[in-house]
């Protein structure tokens, strides 16, 4: 990740501190307003092309505060729990600047997806936090529903399967939103994943070639 090291050397002092806590606080406030004051409040925060065209530029940021899990209290609290665990772990592993880069790459991807398809949300961006956490800490254990211990790598596989299913069977708009929302994950882990895939393909080709030679009696 030489490009990221160079970027950090040049702009490393420019970042938003405590970004995970800001996201959690914004989500909490938005959820409280939605539940107790104005049920349609999330629609005012959502990222839509029509809203941006009307000059509602706050949507470029506030879509990150649309409550995870909607009105379901359990899913909302579970979403905040995972955001706190994973966001804190990634920030500790990378430092605040690189964590900012990861998230804002996904934010830019979401904005691009909204301009192309008409709307986008932060769901797939937050899903990439699961994937990144699982790659960095595969053996860490998390409490699913605050009770059931589950290794992070299992959570990563489940998340990856969900993304794959929605990408394969979803609409064109969904495919675009998934790909662009995962910009940060591709930037940080893409070279590593592609190298691994290429190495597996080469190993498989080598095995097939040797198996074919063995059957034909070629040493």
Textual characterization of the structure:
With 219 residues, this protein is mainly α. The chain contains eleven helices and four strands, in the order αααβααααβαββααα. The strands form two sheets. A two-stranded antiparallel ribbon has the order 1-2. Strands 3-4 form a two-stranded antiparallel sheet. Helix 6 packs across helix 7 (96-117), helix 7 (96-117) runs antiparallel to helix 10 (172-181) and helix 8 packs antiparallel against helix 9 (152-169). The model has no long low-confidence stretch (mean pLDDT 86).
Topology, pairings included?
Elements (H helix, E strand, L loop, with lengths): L1 H10 L7 H18 L4 H5 L1 E2 H5 L5 H4 L10 H22 L1 H22 L1 E2 L2 H14 L4 E4 L3 E4 H18 L2 H10 L1 H33 L4
Antiparallel strand pairs: 1-2, 3-4
Helix pairs in contact: 2-6, 6-7, 6-8, 7-10, 7-11, 8-9
Radius of gyration: 20 Å
Give the total of beta strands: 4
**Strand order of the biggest β-sheet:** 1-2
Give the termini separation.
41 Å
Listing every helix as H and every strand as E from the N terminus to the C terminus, the arrangement reads HHHEHHHHEHEEHHH
Tell the overall outline.
Answer: globular
Percentage of β-strand residues: 5-15%
Class derived from helix and strand content: mainly alpha
Please, what is the average pLDDT? Answer: 86
Q: Which consecutive residue ranges, at least 5 long each, have pLDDT under 50?
A: none
Helix content estimate: over 70%
Largest sheet: 2 strands, antiparallel
Tally of helical segments: 11
């Amino acid at each position: 990740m030489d490009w990221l090291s160079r970027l950090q050397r040049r702009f490393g002092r420019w970042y938003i501190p405590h970004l995970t806590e800001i996201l959690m606080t914004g989500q909490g406030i938005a959820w409280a307003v939605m539940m107790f004051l104005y049920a349609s409040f999330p629609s005012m925060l959502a990222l839509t092309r029509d809203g941006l065209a009307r000059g509602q530029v706050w949507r470029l940021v506030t879509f990150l505060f649309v409550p995870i899990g909607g009105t379901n209290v359990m899913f909302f609290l579970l979403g905040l729990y995972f955001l706190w665990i994973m966001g804190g772990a990634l920030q500790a592993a990378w430092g605040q600047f690189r964590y900012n880069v990861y998230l804002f790459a996904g934010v830019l991807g979401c904005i691009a997806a909204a301009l192309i398809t008409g709307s986008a949300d932060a769901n797939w961006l937050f899903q990439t936090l699961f994937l990144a956490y699982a790659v960095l800490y595969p053996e860490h254990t998390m409490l699913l529903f605050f009770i059931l211990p589950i290794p992070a790598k299992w959570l990563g596989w489940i998340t990856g399967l969900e993304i794959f299913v929605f990408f394969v069977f979803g609409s064109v708009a969904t495919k675009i939103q998934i790909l662009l929302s995962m910009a940060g994950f591709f930037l940080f882990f893409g070279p590593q994943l592609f190298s691994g895939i290429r190495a597996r393909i080469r190993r498989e080709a080598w095995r097939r070639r040797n198996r074919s030679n063995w059957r034909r009696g070629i040493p």
